[in-house]
Write the structure tokens for this entry.
Amino acid sequence: MSKPTGRGPDDVVSPQQLRLLYAIGRLDRGIQRELEQGLRPLGLSPHQYATLTILRARSGLSNAQLARRAYVTPQAMSQVLASLITAGLISRSPSDDNQRVLETRLTPKGLEVTDRCDLIANEIENRMLEGVPQEDRHSLLATIRACVQRINAGLPGT
């Protein structure tokens, strides 16, 4: 019987063979898993948390604007918003410019919960970067921002 020649996703690969795209993808999936576990006691998903942080930074956005910023479809954002309204974390009201457009804002409870979520995200980030010197953290963030900008993926402050 011959040995398979292809590699499976969990096979050991030397550092020289590891693609940066693959490593970033694994990091992204790991971060999502950690966020899901950390946010679960608060009854939130990573998409809900992302939506809350977007609204904290820029209140009054429409469903379409939120969907673009959170990288979800407008239909998925509608579900996220419905769950956040039910939880009392956001409110929606007609825009002064266009009564058919509903603007979304954090409630005081939403702001409090977002701050609690930030503590969870900070813990994950600190654990992920444990042992990485502060100057390397700044350099890493600058490099990631540049990469995001070059592929037009959008990121606040770029």
The two ends are 55 Å apart (CA to CA).
